Amino acid sequence: MYNRTTSLFSIEFPIIQAGMIWCSGWRLASAVSNAGGLGLIGAGSMTPEVLEIHIRKCKAATDKPFGVNVPLIYSRVDEQFDVIIREGVKIVFSSAGNPATWTPVLKQHGITVVHVIANVKSALKCEQSGVDAIVAEGFEAGGHNGKEETTTFTLIPLIRQAVKLPLLAAGGIASGRGMLAAMILGADGVQVGSRFVASVESSAHPGFKQKIVEAGDGGTMLALKKVMPVRLLRNPFFRQVQQLEDEGASPEELKGLLGKGRAKLGMFEGDTDEGELEIGQVAALIGNIKPAGDIVREIMAEYMSARQTI
Predict the structure, then answer these.
(1) Taking the model in full, what pTM does it have?
(2) Which CATH architecture has domain 4-203+286-308?
(3) Contact yes or no for 95/70 (Cβ under 8 A)
(4) What does the pLDDT look like over 55-72, one tens digit per residue?
């Protein structure tokens, strides 16, 4: 399949695996890339030293393009970019920050830059900053969300009419039919997160993966709006957060509950009661755990089949 996304990244299918913290190591990234999509290493949960190891292992596991996702809010982001440049990574997805800060530097090193946004204002800033493409992530997505709470199917046409850059849709997409719907609305490809968390190669803890499969309708909620909006599975930790919020807790009190390492505790170490379990609404449609390559192929097969019915 040839379009602006496959051309930009030199990949076979316009399917990008999201760079999710604690879930997106070299095994998942290389598996998605080997299947024809674009795999991303999630640097948000990695020290620069660990990131270097994952990049090198990914290069050894695939000869296809792959990239790194870097949240710009992390304190050692400059060291992470030093590693990325030194190791010759050619694609960077940035998020949670100002794209103007690092895009010029990365472009000087021949790196393709994509930035994740959740509103039109940020999309326009991306265009001005010189990024190569945009990920528009809707309210349905797992992890940290935009404060606007704009759903994917509203956000995509809004961004499409505002900017001319290649546009990737994210949030609530886990199937070929979802991919087709997003592309009809103006996307040039999709970024898929939650579905790849529930894959064999994902570095998420098996207990977390099983909770995703069991999530069901209404299994996730947006929480911590006073701190930073994040979509979580409903578990005992979520209920603690919800109770504090219902009681009018301050941002400082909520941060105290969070402490340090809650996301790692839940998603990576497998404490599904006391850990923070970040996942999208589309978890309700995920019924099994399977190899990432099979997920890529199934999304594409369903997309092609659905397209023929239009």
Answers:
(1) 0.94
(2) Alpha-Beta Barrel (3.20)
(3) yes
(4) 999 999 999 999 999 999
